[in-house]
């Protein structure tokens, strides 16, 4: 799907870019690419995405949290809200004392497995950075449609300092919003012959997703 089409389905989200060329972060209706070199670009409508998840931002609940790390915050949301068996978006706008991300590097044909492609990935660190974290929680039942558990990306407010797939953080203070979904729509690439003909090893894929996305 092109970025232009994707943005008709939502104004916030996450994904990757054609050839696995970096991490996508969709914020306020604009799609950004964080490349393996750490450079942040705004994506053009004609650029393509092999995988992305978006939604229209309409938070269901909002709370201010202070001085909390990634695992504690994620656990807190599952305890505070009754949504562990459904999909929900999580959005945090605030200041992060520590932000630790990574970005996958572009792959060339013949494409390697996801595990090989993501084995060595550049990582990035920033301290005391303002920005937006966006992503999703998916119940374990839906591993494959999404990454089971939390999958979140980050973009600094200046769109320059740091971005990417979030490995860890410490939130100094921020507005934490969650938005559960009653409906999930999945798009498939019916015009992609390579995808249609591929003989996928689903057992290996599950392991690959877990290894690549945690
Ligand atoms: Zn990611």
TrEMBL record:
Protein keywords: Acetoin biosynthesis, Decarboxylase, Lyase
Molecular function per GO: acetolactate decarboxylase activity
EC number of this enzyme: 4.1.1.5
GO biological process: acetoin biosynthetic process
Pfam families for this protein: AAL_decarboxy
Recorded metabolic or biological pathway in which this protein acts: Polyol metabolism; (R,R)-butane-2,3-diol biosynthesis; (R,R)-butane-2,3-diol from pyruvate: step 2/3
Catalyzed reactions: (2S)-2-acetolactate + H(+) = (R)-acetoin + CO2
Similarity section: Belongs to the alpha-acetolactate decarboxylase family.
Protein name: Alpha-acetolactate decarboxylase
Organism, scientific name: Loigolactobacillus rennini DSM 20253
Upper classification of the organism: Bacteria, Bacillati, Bacillota, Bacilli, Lactobacillales
